[in-house]
Amino acid sequence: MSDYNTENNAIVWVDVPVKDLQRALKFYGEVLSAETSIQELNGETFGVFMYANQNGGALVIEPEKINPDAGMLLYFGCHGRLHEAIAAVSANGGKVLTEINNIGVHGNIVTVLDSEGNKIALHSCSL
């Protein structure tokens, strides 16, 4: 991960548990309009969100850790394309849980289940 990431962000990485790596790569690639890649390390295969001067993360095959009713709620940036991201959720095996919620000067959020059953939030400062 980049020095910019570790020096300028409170959250520097996220591991997202998945059941089906290919399905999850498609979901996150389409919903976040993000480049992903498959990588291997120490005999483990995982998907990586490509990053430079932003936070990064990985899709890790750990189905036993998926629980939409507990744990942290991760906010993924959809920078000015929240409506497109919401449309991509259902089209790629996810489920929209809430309507768009305006959080004042902080933008807008919506909560969804990803293609693997994880509850996540999508955020954008503008719609």
User: Approximately how much beta-strand content do the residues carry?
Assistant: 25-35%
Low-confidence region ranges: none
CATH class placement = Alpha Beta
- Fraction of residues in helices? 10-25%
Number of helices: 3
β-strand number:
9
Largest sheet: 5 strands, mixed
What integer value in Å does the Rg equal? 14 Å
Summing up helix and strand content along with how strands pair, one would put the structural category as alpha+beta
What is the CATH topology descriptor?
2,3-Dihydroxybiphenyl 1,2-Dioxygenase, domain 1
**Number of domains as seen in the coordinates:** 1
The rounded distance between the terminal residues' Cα atoms is 29 Å
Description:
This protein is an alpha+beta fold and 127 residues long. The protein is built from 3 helices and 9 strands, in the order αβαββββαββββ. The chain has helices at 3-8, 21-32, 82-91, and strands at residues 13-18, 36-41, 44-49, 56-61, 74-77, 95-96, 101-102, 108-113, 119-124. Strands 5, 6, 7, 8 and 9 form a 5-stranded mixed sheet that branches. Helix 2 runs antiparallel to helix 3.
